[in-house]
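Dear colleague,

Thank you for sharing your sequence with our group. We've completed the structure prediction you requested, and as agreed, I am returning the results in plain text so they can be pasted directly into your records. Please verify that the sequence below matches your submission; if there's any discrepancy, let me know and we will rerun it promptly.
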Amino acid sequence: MVFECHHPLAGEAIRPQDARRVAQMRRIGHASLRKWGLRRVADEALLIISELVTNAIENGRGSSVGFSISYTGAIVRIEVADGSHDRPCVRRRGGLYDESGRGLVLIEAIASSWGTSEDGTRTWCELRISEAEQGEPV
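Please find the predicted structure tokens below.
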């Protein structure tokens, strides 16, 4: 799925219509996980979706953001494209009251693996699903 968005300038808030896109992508991700019978990993996957889509809206360079979620074998893959060749970096030291800067730290802790495409325009995360976490499709 691809959607148009406005990338805010430094210090500018995300527009409400763009912020709603984050919730929309979470709903799409949640519906896919339910369909695949993967309710047990929904919280982790939805957090990853929120962080990646928000990062793409805040830091992307193009006028659109792409989102996909797939499930193959024992891997759920979440991918977001933002048109920026700048690779995301994990900021280790945020202040106690900082409102941002922890997203990739969380992703690094939750995801089995994560990275970017060779050209830097897509960021992806994978969640490895154990047999116990796999369920019956609904």
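Summary note from our side: The radius of gyration is 15 Å.

Kind regards,
the structure core
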